[in-house]
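Changelog entry

Holo records now carry the ligand SMILES as an explicit input line rather than a separate metadata file. Below, a converted record for magnesium ion, shown in the new format.
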Amino acid sequence: MKTVAIISQKGGVGKTTAAIEIGFAAHQACFVTAIVDLDPQGTAANWGGRRKAEGPSVIGSHASRLGVILETVRQSGTDIAIIDTPPSADAVAMQAAKLSDFVMIPTRPGGFDLEAIQSTLEMVELLTKPAAVLVNAIPTNRLHLGITTLAGLWQRGIAAAPFVWMERAAFADLGADGKPALERDPQGKASQEVTRLFSWLCEQVGLASSSIEDARQQSSKMSQAALKVQLAALALAEYAGEGQLAELGPGFHREDRNRRYADDAQAPCARTRTSMCGEKIHLFEKSAKFGIA
Ligand SMILES: Nc1ncnc2c1ncn2[C@@H]1O[C@H](COP(=O)(O)OP(=O)(O)OP(=O)(O)O)[C@@H](O)[C@H]1O
Ligand SMILES: [Mg+2]
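Structure line, unchanged by the conversion:
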């Protein structure tokens, strides 16, 4: 069983949204999936309790029982457990990170939000846990915010998921009617963003199946807005003259905190890098094509 903790000290950055959307994507990809809700607010647990349609199992738990709960779901044949946490970088977040294989740190774009992830980053560094920031809820009319956020993260050597999530009605509506994006509109942009991120996450934790391959093919077209952010951030990094950033790519830590791929071509971000910015000119051609440069 693989365990992914979703942690951020700041509230309202999309922890619960990510836990449910990723959990539902895992369920749809035929993984036996459990969401463990450590937040006393119980948002994810209430979502699971209200749900009539099929979906991942959702369990509310106190952090002190997390080890027991994870062992129980593991023994019952769960493939992936996703832990939703309250907004904190305290003992609850620490316990979740400790018992996980990977930590996802959602943040909204922008300076204040980035400041707030510092304590979470320090915590995962202390625990030497593989982790990545998820840049979430980038307003579609303010792409520059996503671009500067990603560029800022890479310049600080912080691992970031190579697939951002834009601000989408489909994500916001999860709270209204309980339908994850993949259930509401499987072909929609939010669904594509969820599937891309989930496929990438599977690679990070070493979960793979033919279902993922199917999912990847279905979502081979990243939404244009998200793609613009990725490309422009890469272009920005190149312009800034940060030669080593071209060597890094999203999803990699400068000090190799996270997993490295023996073969660069296998790395999702390396593939992105090679296909989108193998050469500067190539990158800028692409940027121009999508109206960035
Ligand atoms: N990508 C997105 N697009 C649109 N709305 C979003 C997106 N991500 C999150 N939201 C909305 O932002 C609000 C906060 O999200 P969520 O509850 O997932 O955050 P959280 O980090 O779990 O908050 P808390 O710390 O209080 O538990 C919700 O109303 C959610 O619908
Ligand atoms: Mg929450």
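Spot-checked after migration. Residues 187 and 246 are 32 Å apart (CA to CA). Residues 11-17, 39, 41, 43, 87, 136-137, 165, 167-168, 171-172, 174-175 surround adenosine-5'-triphosphate (ligand 1) (CB under 6 Å).
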